[in-house]
């Protein structure tokens, strides 16, 4: 049953990542991978919030492992960063990695704090 819940969450998370990237790229352009940054930062904050706030393992499997796991993407981050390096845009590549890591950690800390405020 847990595997099915993870698959269901991923079935929503992966298309959400794809659609978010399309929308963000439409408005911000493709000069930098803003869509990947958006889903990684948001997904990190949401995942940590849910880990703290949701006690039921079934809901955690669906929402954290399934949805957030498919929404966020390390593989796309790595690919896009390497593409920036191949284009000779080293500063953008370093900025991209730093922004994803710092943004994800910051969002995780915010999610942690918010969940503790809500749950006591």
Summarize the structure.
It is found in: Cell membrane. Fluoride-specific ion channel. Important for reducing fluoride concentration in the cell, thus reducing its toxicity. The protein is an all-alpha fold.
What does the model show?
Helix content is 88%, strand content 0%. The chain has 120 residues and is mainly α. It has one domain. Helix 1 (2-28) runs antiparallel to helix 2 (34-53) and helix 1 (2-28) runs parallel beside helix 3. The protein is globular and about 45 Å long.
Q: Give the ordered list of helices and strands.
A: HHHHH
State which percent range the strand residues make up.
under 5%
Give me the number of helical elements: 5
The first-to-last residue Cα distance is 30 Å
Calculate Rg over CA atoms: 15 Å
**Cα shape:** globular
| Mean pLDDT rating | 97
Q: What is the percent of helical residues?
A: over 70%
* Poorly predicted runs: none
Q: How many β-strand stretches?
A: 0
Number of domains: 1
